[in-house]
């Protein structure tokens, strides 16, 4: 049985895989960069701010934040492949010089207390092993009056079918997600004051529609072979229909929150 850290490594590397990019693209969350910028506006990120993007994946959101809000962004990612790809992108593309990428554990980030004006966590808190401790670390990293932006998939307890309680469910941030009031309580219990929250569940429906199109293209142009991606293509229609029904019933959703640390 994997220990906790090894399990995190496996999960992080899974998000760098061909299968994850097929499902979620480079941004690795529903709504893509559109949702990232929306969360940034809810946080009222200001030019020149020091922003930490926890579990930044391939670095797409960190880059977008720096460009749109003209802030300094540090992306932290545990997955070796994703962290390396982020650094390569920063060197090879016209990415602003105020973006940096570091490899590390998002639950125990290696930064000094009060180092950031804002911290953003997109579709990652649901995967944290010790959620309350991780949010306490975020509060430590924020300066007095700093802001946390969190977006994540929400799941009503007991609503997830067995078919989604595995690898695919993990990639969709479903397997250990909280209900909407669960994230709110988690933030408030950490001493934060929620300043904005929004239901973006339609983004999940959009993601499902896009995934259907991607899988159709995949099946048309890929030679059949035994792989996670080909296995997904086989089971995808039924899985997508299940998720879509749960979203429409309000059992699965996608919310974002902005919460401020006391000054």
Characteristics:
263 residues; 7-stranded mixed β-sheet; Rossmann fold; alpha/beta; disordered N terminus
Query: What name does CATH use for the topology?
Result: Rossmann fold
User: So, CATH architecture?
Assistant: 3-Layer(aba) Sandwich
How many domain modules? 1
Radius of gyration: 18 Å
CATH class equals: Alpha Beta
Provide an overview of this structure.
The structure is a single chain. The chain has 263 residues and is an alpha/beta fold. It has a single domain, classed as Vaccinia Virus protein VP39 (Rossmann fold). The protein is 46% helix and 20% strand. It is built from ten helices and seven strands. It has helices spanning 4-14, 18-24, 32-43, 60-69, 80-92, 131-141, 167-171, 180-189, 202-221, 228-248, and strands spanning 50-54, 72-77, 99-103, 116-122, 142-155, 193-199, 252-260. It has a seven-stranded mixed β-sheet, with helices on both faces. Helix 9 (202-221) packs antiparallel against helix 10. The longest helix has 21 residues, at 228-248. The protein is globular. It starts with a helix and ends with a strand. The model is unreliable at 1-13 (pLDDT under 50).
